[in-house]
Write a structure and sequence with these properties.
With about 625 residues, the protein is an alpha+beta fold. It folds into 3 domains: about 160 residues, Alpha-Beta Plaits, CATH 3.30.70; about 350 residues, Rossmann fold, CATH 3.40.50.200; about 80 residues, 2-Layer Sandwich (Alpha-Beta Plaits), CATH 3.30.70. It has 12 helices and 24 strands.
Length: about 625
């Protein structure tokens, strides 16, 4: 079957098998691209596979793939697909996310897995599992399609990977030789073109306010592809590097990608007396190599940030292809980092809105816990390419008339179709072999990440939500006033980021009360107020919305008070035991019908608890 329809995120994906491309996994020490049966390597890593074209000669791709699977060096071979109307290759990782309908027992779930020879990989809760195909299973896409038609199953989604867009727009006008985005005086040393004085991110003013260029304790993670670990502006700053695909600290060099190098430099390039300087040059740099649409890789990249001390996560990539929207597991991976990171204060996560000139943003940037960054120009105008939407948080200076300067990886081939210095500099004037002109929302996003690093330098106790709120509150309104509604513009968000005002507000809040407790397991060691409560027995019937589970009873009281005040519903606490410890599950509401609980769940999800889910109270008895 060459065409197949599967579930993907919030919609369906209509796929057609590629007539020329396949995915191969070879033995660890074997280079796939060098094998005699490979015509050309198209992508070095997608869903754990190398995407290649085969030397088919007179045979079709199906026949040739069957032959290649018999090669000793080949561990796994799989077909590559394309979504209807898309030129992005799609590859199935072999895992399938399955959510059963309420009431389906584990025994019934096991029968379904046995029917398709699936292996249980992980159980997320009583209804959610991740399974994977075995050698006895059909193609994972076919399995997922068949599972979706089984009455016991609510969702069966194959885990797939696609190449994600890197949000960089090559400059189109004459370029500048200095970093006007840090401080814009209106004129440039090597051109006659006038900029808009003050159309910058106020980085230099923030440094003056801090009397420093930030703290060495702040860790900025940049998730991308192609980090030049030898670059003089990055090499001495690298902290706990990680490659998603090899799951090691070895950052691949010269594999075709170079986008991560300029992105990282905009945020954290070192203040070493040479080249450029980032917005937060004192911060540590955690390079995480490898962007992926794969569920497992998505969870892996954000879990790595949580577990290894990342404070800020900058992502200048994503997709606006409606066929590839985020599913619940990807959304939860981002939400987890935004809540669990920084010991409960939350990692600050930034995504570029994208460079497609669309009226909606990159699907990753649309996540409610993300700071969605758009691009403005050196004249304080909307950058024509920058996507628009209600989710835009702030904008930041980038190209659109005059670009900025960023670091260049040593293997960067520059812009295709150009020769000489024009490959890296639009006006052909070189400002150094290790640098180039750069822009797009790819540049705007790490610039704001650097601003966030300065804010945490001023006040390390800020929560992720507070950082986002401060950025939006202190941003400068640019563009026509009529483009704003209730202080927000679909083009500019809440305005162009102002690092000086943001740092000033962070300092003002430094002496305020400790940040609110979220879902944590740490003991409450200091007074958090007095609570009046009335304990009544709850019958184990009906439906509610579970927001979390806690080990510390003090945190339960704090959460219950907050939930009652915010949502105006009864709060139920279930006392149970997990791994030898008492655990308290907190549920909001007690309704006779599931539909009433689902309605409340949407309100709670939008009110700061995106992982909350409806719960049958009988299951807690």
């Amino acid at each position: 079957m060459s065409k197949i329809t599967v579930k993907c995120g919030k919609g369906q994906l209509h796929l057609e098998k590629s007539k020329s491309l396949v995915g191969l996994k070879t033995q660890e020490s074997v280079e796939t691209k060098d094998q005699k049966f490979v015509e050309k390597q198209v992508l070095p890593s997608l869903g754990g596979f190398n995407v290649v074209s085969l030397k088919t000669e007179d045979s079709n791709v199906d026949t040739k793939l069957d032959e290649v699977r018999q090669e000793d060096v080949v561990e796994v071979g799989t077909h590559v697909y394309f979504a209807e109307g898309s030129n992005k290759p799609v590859i199935a990782t072999g895992e399938i996310f399955i959510e059963f309908h309420d009431g389906v027992s584990e025994e019934e779930q096991s029968v379904v897995l046995e029917e398709f020879s699936l292996e249980l990989v992980e159980r997320r809760n009583e209804l959610r599992i991740i399974a994977k195909v075995t050698p006895s299973s059909p193609n994972p896409l076919k399995v997922a399609s068949a599972l979706q038609n089984i009455s016991l199953i609510e969702v069966a989604e194959p885990d797939i990977d696609i190449p994600l867009d890197e949000y960089f727009t090559p400059p189109e006008d004459h370029l500048i030789p200095h970093q006007w985005h840090l401080k814009n005086d209106g004129d440039l040393p090597d051109v006659t073109y006038r900029l808009e004085k003050g159309a910058d991110a106020k980085i230099v003013d923030a440094w003056k306010r801090l009397s420093s260029t930030g703290s060495k304790k702040v860790v900025v993670a940049v998730i991308d592809n192609g980090f030049d670990k030898s670059h003089p502006d990055l090499s001495a700053k690298i902290f706990k590097p990680f490659d998603i695909h090899s799951r090691s600290s070895n950052l691949p060099q010269n594999q075709g990608y170079s986008h991560g190098t300029p992105c990282a430099s905009v945020a954290i390039a070192a203040n070493n007396g040479n080249g450029i300087v980032g917005a937060a040059p004192s911060a540590k740099f955690m390079p995480i190599n490898g962007t992926s649409f794969d569920i497992r890789d998505t969870e892996r990249m954000f879990d790595y940030c949580i577990d290894n001390g990342a404070d800020i996560i900058s992502c200048s990539w994503g997709t606006t292809d409606s066929r590839f929207q985020l599913n619940s597991l990807k959304e939860e991976a981002i939400a987890k980092a935004a809540r669990k990171g920084r010991k409960g204060k939350g990692c600050i996560i930034l995504y570029a809105v994208g460079n497609d000139n669309l009226d909606y943003v990159n699907f990753y940037a649309a996540h409610p816990d993300v700071i969605a960054v758009a691009a403005s120009t050196s004249k304080d105008r909307h950058a024509y390419y920058s996507n628009r939407g209600k989710e835009v948080s702030v904008c930041a200076p980038s190209n659109g008339d005059w670009p900025i300067i960023a670091a260049r990886a040593w293997w960067d081939n520059g812009w295709s179709g150009e020769v000489g210095n024009f490959k890296y500099w639009t006006d052909g004037r070189s400002r150094g072999d290790r640098y180039k002109h750069f822009g797009g929302t790819s540049s705007a996003t790490p610039l704001v990440a650097g601003v966030c690093a300065l804010m945490l330098s001023a006040n390390p106790d800020l929560t992720a939500k507070q950082v986002k709120d401060i950025l939006q509150k202190t941003a400068d309104k640019i563009g026509p006033s009529w483009e704003y509604s209730n202080g927000h513009s679909t083009k500019y968000g809440y305005g162009r980021v102002n690092a000086d005002k943001a740092v000033a507000e962070a300092l003002r809040l430094k002496e305020s009360v400790a940040p609110p407790v979220t879902e944590v397991d740490e003991p409450v060691t200091s007074g958090r107020g007095l609570f009046r409560f009335d304990v009544r027995k709850q019958e184990p019937k009906g439906w509610g919305v579970q927001i979390g589970a806690f080990y510390e009873y003090g945190n339960v009281l704090i959460q219950v008070e907050k939930l009652q005040k915010k949502f105006g519903e009864e709060v139920i606490v279930n006392i149970n035991e997990l791994n030898g410890r008492t655990v308290y599950k907190v549920v909001v509401g007690a309704f006779a019908t599931k539909s009433e609980a689902m309605k409340l769940r949407k309100t709670i999800n939008n009110g700061g608890y995106p992982s909350a889910f409806q719960r049958n109270l009988a299951d807690l008895a």
